Amino acid sequence: MSIARRPPNSKRTPRKRTRTRTKVKKKDPLYVDGKRPRPMYVDYKDVDLLTKLVNRHGRIVGRRKNGCGAVSQHAITSAVKRARFMALIPYVGE
User: Fold this and answer.
1) What is the DSSP-derived secondary structure letter of residue 81?
2) Segment 57-78, tens digit of pLDDT
3) pLDDT of residue 61
4) How many Å separate Cα 92 from the centre of its chain?
5) How far apart are CA 66 and CA 77, in angstroms?
6) pLDDT band (50, 70, 90) for residue 6
7) Does the model's pTM come out above 0.85?
8) HSE-up of 70 (CA within 13 Å, CB side)?
9) Which of 24, 60, 69, 81 falls 20 to 30 Å from 16 in CA-CA distance?
10) Are 50 and 90 contacting, i.e. CB atoms less than 8 angstroms apart?
């Protein structure tokens, strides 16, 4: 087996460094005036908010995508499930 090697006199072009992007923390969509409501509660009758947190297929959007914390994501999940049961939003999207 022969390994293709560079001739010793060839000049290497330096690689450009890729800039690392700093992650911008998303704001939790459930916060009211910058504070988390305590106890965390999402109104299941607020269909406009719930449709923003559900994708077009009817699935609940994950925590990483919508920028929620774990506590507020749990509240969203229970509210969406209640709203589905009460037939305010569909189980399946388009």
Assistant:
1) H
2) 999 999 888 888 888 899 999 9
3) 92
4) 20
5) 12
6) low
7) no
8) 0
9) 24
10) no
